[in-house]
Every structure is written in C-alpha cells, then in structure tokens.
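Exercise 7b. Backbone tokens:
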C-alpha cells in the first residue's frame, strides 16, 4: 500500500504526496538502501511521489519470492488463474478514471489518451483471463497405431518484466497477464519515471487475489538494478520494452545464460500518402499519429512519405493544423499535446533541431521549447514539422521519440516503399491510397510488424500480435495468441498405449 505523506515543499503543501514501495512476497516494503527518489509531474516539475530506491539485494529477494511461488502457481488450475485476472479487469474498469488522472500527472499524456492506456490494459487483462480456459495445444494423429500425440504449453519460469514509461499501464499488462495466465511468476521492474502506475497495477492484482510471490515489484533505476535482474540465475526470461540500445545491452549480458529474451524496441514509423489519397483523411492520421502521446509512442509516425503530387498541399495543411495544437497540462481539457516525460528526454528531442538544420532540413513549424509562462516549468517541446528532409538524414533514420515528424517527398509507390524500408527499424507503417492494387503491394512489401491502410500508425488492438521486424525486436511478439508463444514453452507429448515397442519412422506399416 502507498502511504500518504505531506509534501515537503511550500508550494504544494496542501497536496498529499505518496510514498511508493516495492512489493515482494505479498508485502509492501521499502528497499534495503532506505533511499528514495522523486517522481515528478513533467508538466510543471511538481513532486507527486517519493519512491523507494531498490538495491540488488531487493532484486534477489524478489527473484527468490518468485521462484518459491512458481511450483504452486504452475499447478494452480489455469481457469482459476483466469478468474483472478477477470476480477482484476473489473477493478481496473472501476478505477479507470482515477488511474488515468494519475497517469497524466505522472508522465504527461493527455487524460483522454491516459484513459486509452488504461483501457488497453483492461482489454489485455480480459483477453488473457479468457486464455485461462483456452491455451489451446494440438491433438494430432500419431503415425503408429495405439499411440496418442499432443502438445501443451508449459511455463518458462520466473519472468523479469522490464517496462517503459510511455504506456505505464498497458505495456506491463502485455507482459504480466500472459506470463501469469500461463503459470509463470514475475519480477516487475517498471521505468523509474512511472512507478506510481506500476504500484497501482500490482495493488489491483493483489486485491483480485493473486497469491503472494506470483508478482513482485522492484522500483528503481535501470542502471542500479537492471543488469543484476537480467543476469540473475533465478530469472528464466527477460521481457523488455524500451530503446534498441538498451535491448542490445540486455541481449549481450543475458546471452551467456541462454535465457529467453523478448524485445519490443525502437521504431521509425512512416505514413505514406499517395497522389490518389484522401489528403484530408491522411492529415487526421498524421496529426494523431505524430503528435498523440507527444510523439512518445513506439508506433508514432515520425516520417511522412508524401508523393510529390500531393506533398505541397499536404505540407501546407499540416502546418496549419499543427499551428492550432495547444500545449499544456494533460489534465486541462484545452490541451492537445502534453509535455515530454522528462528533462533528459526533452533535451534529446531539442537536440535534433540543429542536427536537422545542419543536414539541410527546414523547420516548417515548431522546433522550440517554450521559454516563458507556465509551460517553461514543464518539459514541453513544440509540435514540429520538418520539410526538405532526405531519406538518409539523421532525422529520417533515428528514433526521436518526441513531437517531431519529417516530410520526405517521393515520386512513386516503389520509391516510397524503398524509403519506408531504408531504416533499421520495422514496427509500424501506413499507406493512404484509394487504389486497392497499391494498398496490397504495400501490405506485401512493408517490412514492419504492423501495417495500416487508410489509418495512421498508432492504435494497435490487443488481440493481434504486436511487435516489429529488424532492429525493433528479436522475433517475438506480444499480445494476441502470439503473445502466448512468447511466454511459454511447447511440450510435445506422446503416449503409447500399444503395450509394445513401436519405432517412429521405422515401423511404417506399409511394407
Ligand atoms: C508503444 O508505444 O510501445 O499501437 C505501444 C499503439 C498502442 C500501443 C503503443 N496501442 O499505438
């Protein structure tokens, strides 16, 4: 449970700030260091919580608890596990508004989108609750008489779920819900910017009746405890969503132990607008996909690849639309675009502006951090459109993870697909066209795990696989049925009831 404290600072003295703790073996406990760090509202820099800072000893305790819980949990009937998840989803639904508002304060996204994040978690939890009564395997004919052949899922063991701040509720559910419905136990290490939503998720699962030790929470910075968790011999699998650089590091340090690692990493997603497209419709998709969540979705459209037949018209209209977007606190109903999550992150976004200009791109609108008024207290960056961008420029190749999109002009569908696929990432892509042949060529040739036709690049639904090709991942998918494969082993079982030795591939019964 969280403990209400009085804020230490005069300007927020009437606001109770919360102290957030670890959850290990069914108990809410402070980390062994006794140290805390602060959780800030990125829109104004106010402290909203203090957070226990875990040590490697706390990680050891969490892994130990997860290991001890594993045997009983894997034998606990899966439909009963599903009932716990079902109850958790009901609690989430009841608490949706409160969770959404806390999320906006904690990481900045506008409250309508925070509700969407919570809803995505609810959807995933109901979906995986249903898997308590499915988890289908195959029963197939055996090639020998009086023999039975089937496959069943088997849990992997203790899963380290290391999650990002941009979807602080939904993404943890993508990992935790499939993991526990399949009989695994979990050590959950959320991003240090979003411990509050992580605590809320664990509280909900506790209230729903999840047995102690099945889910353990350790709060703290990746640098302090991340490597220890990844390399821990008691951890059988690491599921990580975050940057490609961190993913590559985890891959290396996890490799010697051969544990499974599953990644959802960076993206450089693009919307293609062909010369036969409904330009106004594409505009809606671009604004939503480029500036929703302040551009901090892995699926954000940070490139617009526009056919030169429509590029000028599209650019003019986009600039006018972006001019009208209002920055502000995500809880204000007038706000279209909230802050970037942190000082470090907004500085990174801003650092791309001189890079863009040096390479010859032009800032058509935006490009600055507000320096006066209330916005100057938060980590805001203006929604930005870059034009005259060439496909090989850094702003067209690197993930910026902020409210910035780059327009690249092309002369044909083939050229557009070439530009789309020229980046190292492969998460999401979209095409706006009225030509069914172009749409199908695009669907076939896009090297991305998610493809949209006449819609933006964001908004994946949880019943289909989520993940990407190339440097976006390592071949695993989350969500949907594919998510079950990520968090389980297949076990193939043969039962011979003939009462004699039967040799597969040798006793062929055909002479
Ligand atoms: C992410 O940014 O990592 O498809 C997740 C979408 C959301 C999930 C994004 N459903 O944009």
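Sequence design result:
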């Amino acid at each position: 449970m969280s403990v209400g404290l009085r804020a230490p600072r005069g300007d927020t003295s009437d606001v109770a700030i919360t102290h957030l703790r670890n959850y290990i073996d069914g108990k809410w406990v402070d980390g062994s260091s006794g140290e805390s760090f602060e959780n800030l509202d990125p829109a104004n820099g106010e402290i909203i919580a203090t957070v226990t800072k875990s040590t490697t000893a706390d990680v050891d305790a969490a892994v130990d608890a997860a290991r001890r819980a594993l045997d009983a949990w894997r034998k606990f009937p899966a439909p009963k596990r599903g009932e716990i998840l079902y109850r958790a989803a009901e609690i989430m639904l009841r608490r949706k508004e409160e969770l959404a508002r806390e999320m906006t304060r904690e990481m900045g996204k506008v409250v309508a989108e925070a509700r969407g994040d919570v809803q995505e978690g609810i959807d995933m939890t109901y979906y995986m609750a249903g898997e308590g009564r499915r988890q289908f395997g195959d029963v197939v004919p055996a090639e020998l008489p009086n023999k039975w052949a089937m496959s069943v899922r088997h849990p992997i063991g203790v899963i380290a779920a290391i999650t990002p701040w941009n979807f602080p509720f939904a993404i943890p559910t993508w990992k935790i819900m499939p993991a526990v419905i399949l009989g695994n136990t979990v050590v959950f290490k959320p991003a240090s910017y979003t411990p509050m939503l992580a605590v809320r998720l664990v509280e909900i699962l506790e209230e729903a009746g999840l047995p102690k030790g099945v889910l353990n929470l350790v709060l703290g910075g990746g640098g302090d405890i991340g490597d220890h968790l990844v390399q821990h011999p008691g951890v059988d699998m690491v599921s990580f969503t975050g940057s490609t650089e961190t993913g590559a590091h985890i891959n290396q340090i996890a490799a010697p132990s051969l544990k499974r690692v599953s990644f959802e990493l960076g993206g450089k997603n693009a919307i293609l607008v062909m010369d036969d497209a409904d330009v106004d419709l594409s505009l809606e998709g671009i604004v939503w996909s480029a500036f929703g969540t302040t551009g901090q979705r892995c699926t954000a459209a940070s490139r617009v690849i526009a056919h030169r037949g429509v590029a000028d018209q599209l650019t003019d209209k986009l600039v006018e639309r972006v001019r009208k977007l209002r920055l502000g606190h995500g809880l204000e109903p007038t706000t279209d675009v909230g802050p970037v999550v942190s000082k470090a992150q907004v500085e990174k976004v801003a650092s791309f502006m001189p890079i863009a200009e040096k390479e010859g791109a032009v800032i058509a609108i935006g490009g600055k951090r507000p320096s006066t008024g209330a916005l100057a207290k938060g980590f805001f960056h203006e929604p930005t459109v870059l034009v005259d961008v060439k496909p090989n420029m850094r702003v067209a190749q690197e993930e910026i993870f902020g409210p910035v999109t780059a327009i690249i002009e092309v002369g044909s569908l083939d050229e557009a697909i070439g530009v789309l696929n020229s980046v190292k990432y492969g998460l999401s892509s979209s095409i706006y066209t009225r030509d069914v042949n172009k749409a199908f060529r695009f669907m076939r040739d896009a090297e991305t795990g998610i493809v949209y036709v006449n819609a933006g690049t964001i908004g994946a639904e949880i019943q289909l696989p989520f993940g990407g090709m190339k440097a976006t991942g390592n071949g695993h998918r989350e969500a949907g049925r594919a998510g079950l494969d990520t968090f389980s082993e297949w076990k193939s079982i043969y039962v011979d009831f003939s009462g004699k030795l039967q040799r597969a591939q040798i006793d062929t019964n055909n002479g």
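Instructor comment: Residues 120, 166-167, 297-299, 458-460 surround 2-aminohexanedioic acid (CB under 6 Å). Residues 55 and 225 are 6 Å apart (CA to CA).
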